[in-house]
Design a protein that fits this description.
mainly beta, 17 strands
């Protein structure tokens, strides 16, 4: 089991009426210790830095590109990741920051789960209205068990994360798109499919009466999963 006990807090100003309204701080949980792969090609110092372990094919199939990398690559109307890894808050989720950057050609960007695996990380001890996990599953869905570790108890929740090609139902209470309708690229930055791929966001609702201290994410064997980021919204 992988365990991490670091975190950082990012104040988020929400001004748009369609955004989630909160006077509290959004906490971007630090999962840096677990990052073990680079599935996003970047444009760094005017050179393409190709992804090394991707989003499907057990890590050797395809990856994503940033928009600058796609434009440099000559892709037209590319459905690429935005250059800014901070995804703005909207009516479904707070601001979520991923770990890729065009300014960084070396650091890992995600945590991959090939087969059965789990990670556990501490969070600032507090009551939370919601936890958000940015995830993708390839080679089919991934079955997940989320263990919420409170100060004096634990709570288990189970979810099925769909394949990242699958559309999310509009009325799904737990899953949203963080990034939608993306293209994907092979290991020579050749576009293999032009659209219809996603980074999903799983919303978890902790017990508002309890103080959360850590989270464990475990996955069963089927599916290849990529864990992109985690964030939470503190209760009042």
């Amino acid at each position: 089991m992988k365990i991490l006990s670091l975190f950082f807090i990012v104040p988020v100003l929400l001004t748009n009426s369609t955004q989630i309204r909160s006077t509290n701080k959004v906490v971007q949980f630090d999962i840096a210790k677990f990052l073990n792969a680079r599935p996003v090609s970047t444009l760094t110092n005017n050179k393409l830095v190709t992804w090394t372990k991707g989003i499907d094919g057990n890590g050797i199939g395809d990856g994503y590109l940033t928009m600058s990398a796609a434009l440099f690559n000559g892709d037209k109307d590319a459905h690429a990741l935005p250059d800014d890894p901070l995804f703005a808050a909207n009516g479904l989720h707070p601001a979520i920051k991923l770990h890729y950057s065009n300014a960084d050609s070396l650091s890992n960007q995600v945590c991959t789960f090939a087969g059965e695996d789990d990670v556990e990380f501490d969070v600032p001890k507090a009551k939370y209205t919601a936890i958000y996990l940015a995830l993708t599953s390839a080679e089919g869905p991934s079955s997940l068990k989320i263990q919420l570790n409170y100060v004096n108890s634990i709570e288990l929740k189970t979810f099925v994360l769909p394949d990242y090609y699958q559309d999310i139902k509009a009325d799904d209470p737990n899953l949203f798109y963080l990034a939608h309708d993306l293209a994907k690229w092979g290991n020579k930055n050749n576009m293999t499919e032009k659209d219809h791929h996603n980074i999903d966001l799983l919303k978890i609702r902790p017990d508002l009466k309890k103080v959360l201290k850590s989270i464990n994410i475990s996955k069963t064997k089927p599916g290849y999963m990529v864990f992109w980021a985690a964030a939470g919204v503190k209760a009042g």
